[in-house]
Design brief:
This protein is α/β, with parallel strands linked by helices. The protein has helices spanning 12-18, 51-65, 82-85, 100-108, 135-138, 141-152, 162-171, 214-223, 255-260, 278-284, 307-326, and strands at 36-40, 69-73, 89-92, 113-116, 156-159, 180-182, 202-205, 229-232, 244-248, 264-266, 288-290. The model is unreliable at 1-32 and 122-142 (pLDDT under 50).
């Protein structure tokens, strides 16, 4: 439920982790660095199923385990903004609905805040759909003047991949002056592994939308009619070739099994993606990856070092996240 101050009952963190999240553990915890934190998200990250919310949930659990006092502010309890004005640190995640007045208040009270970016669009001109490399977003002067001072006042910016940060700096080079950290999505790599069974065909997840690469995926399917393609996700196209099986949504807990039925994972977006957690999921599950230079996960050098390196870095993500946040003063 939306919580003005999230207080998990005993044992609840372990239950949340059992559903696919992990914590950074207590290793590296510094008692002198414990903070009162206001975490701001449009959706409730403790219950919402989206990728950004899953990432937030894993980071919040890790922060609680490190001893931080974390309050979660969403649209449902945004009136409790006093939680932010008295916090040691405010973390702004997917926070498109945050009123400008709150940023002004944070500046007036000299409260430090950090941005945890999940999507593109430094001017937040449209949730997920518009990106800074598109001219229509580069030239919206109103949004530029509205946001730039708030962004430049941030104590820290966290991006999900080298490509993710590059795209933001392409849209606004002045952000290079803001302290930053690169931290991949915090998915649980232990949920994805090769089951050793027989594989065939190809699979694509959440690729039914144009900006996720459907035209390119469709073209690939037409060029490879001998390789049936399973398309997974809620947004299914109406112009799929006969070789494409429209699977629809699949429960997260069933994805490892589904990946293991396929030999190839296909992801061909038509614009840079921040990370795309399905790519390392499929890779750790044993799939061959057919991607392009617009996949954020593939822009990490360690992705080219093999599955052990990917598993190691994903496990370390919550710890790296909080080490960066604990350095903010």
């Amino acid at each position: 439920q939306p919580a003005g101050c999230f207080r998990p009952p005993a044992g609840s963190l372990d239950k949340l982790e059992a559903h696919g999240q992990r914590s950074g553990g207590r290793e590296g915890q510094r008692p002198g660095a414990l903070m009162k934190i206001a975490w701001i998200q449009d959706m409730d990250p403790m219950v919402s199923p989206g990728g950004a919310e899953m990432n937030d949930r894993a980071m919040i659990i890790a922060g609680l385990r490190r001893g931080h006092d974390i309050s979660i502010l969403t649209q449902g309890n945004a009136h409790e903004e006093h939680q932010a004005l008295t916090a040691d640190l405010v973390i702004l995640s997917n926070a498109v609905t945050v009123p400008m007045s709150l940023y002004d208040a944070l500046a007036k009270e000299n409260r430090p805040y950090a941005f945890f970016f999940h999507d593109y669009g430094p001017w937040l001109c449209k949730w997920r759909l518009f990106y800074p490399m598109e001219e229509r977003c580069r030239t919206i002067c109103y949004l530029r003047s509205r946001w730039i001072d708030h962004l430049l006042r941030a104590k820290l910016m966290i991006w999900l991949s080298p490509l993710h940060r590059w795209a933001w700096l392409w849209g606004e080079p002045r952000l290079e002056a803001v302290p930053h950290a690169l931290v991949p999505s915090a998915l649980n790599p232990d949920l994805f592994h090769d089951l050793g069974g027989k594989r065939k065909d190809a699979i694509a997840v959440h690729s039914g939308l144009p900006f996720k690469g459907w035209p390119r995926v469709r073209a690939w399917a037409e060029e490879h009619p001998e390789t049936p393609l399973t398309l997974v996700g809620p947004d299914l196209p109406s112009d799929a070739p006969k070789s494409v099986r429209l699977q629809g949504p699949v429960p997260y807990g069933k994805m490892n099994e589904l990946y293991n039925q396929h030999e190839t994972f296909l992801h061909l977006p038509d614009r840079p993606m921040p990370f795309d957690r399905t790519v390392p999921e499929a890779y750790l599950a044993g799939c061959k990856i057919v991607g392009n230079s617009l996949v954020g996960a593939l822009s990490w050098p360690w992705f080219q070092e093999g599955r052990d390196a990917v598993r190691r870095e994903l496990k370390a993500a919550p710890t790296h996240f909080w080490e960066a946040m604990e350095g903010v003063r």
